[in-house]
Amino acid sequence: MGGEKGHKFWWSRLTSEPSDAEKLHALADWCENLAATDQRAGFEKVIDELDFGPETSAAMQRAARQWVALLADSGAFESAAVALIPRNAIYSGGRLADGQYVAQVILQGGGAAHSRAARSLSMAWLAALMRALARQSIEADAAQVN
Question: How far apart are CA 5 and CA 115, in angstroms?
Fold first, then answer.
């Protein structure tokens, strides 16, 4: 869907382009604090921040959103989270001895971030992704100024 342009995202950009880094950080914090039973709400909020671009038909956008929703509704939260991470990104995550989850996402181009205290692995990945996108946005804005 978005790979034709070289960025390997199945979605093309954030809806609030240029994005609001503070809003993305707040969303990441919120995702980290969600109970495992509330992960579906995290996916709903995160996917609302993504845009597929004008070249993607409304039907294709609806199908992509429904696909992630289906995974989340089925309890395949980790699969839904991985589906949102760009194909060319590097990501890792796991559970600590104290029961908290950690994750890291490194986007192509170097935008990277982590989550260190999430209550589920899927929300750790989403929080890390939102923070990486926020960082990428800040760096892109700084590059435009220079």
Answer: 29
- Judge whether 61 and 69 are in contact, CB under 8 Å: no
The dihedrals phi and psi of 118, each to the nearest 5 degrees, come to -85, 160
Per-residue tokens: 101: 């989850």
- Proportion of the chain above pLDDT 90, given as a percent: 55
CA nearest to 40, candidates 11, 81, 9, 95: 81
Q: What is the distance between the alpha carbons of residues 115 and 126, in angstroms, rounded to a whole number?
A: 9
Which contiguous run of DSSP H or E holds residue 43? helix 39-48
**Whole-number Cα distances in Å, 73 to 41, 63, 100, 109:** 10, 15, 23, 32
Q: Compare 32 and 14 and report the one with higher pLDDT.
A: 32
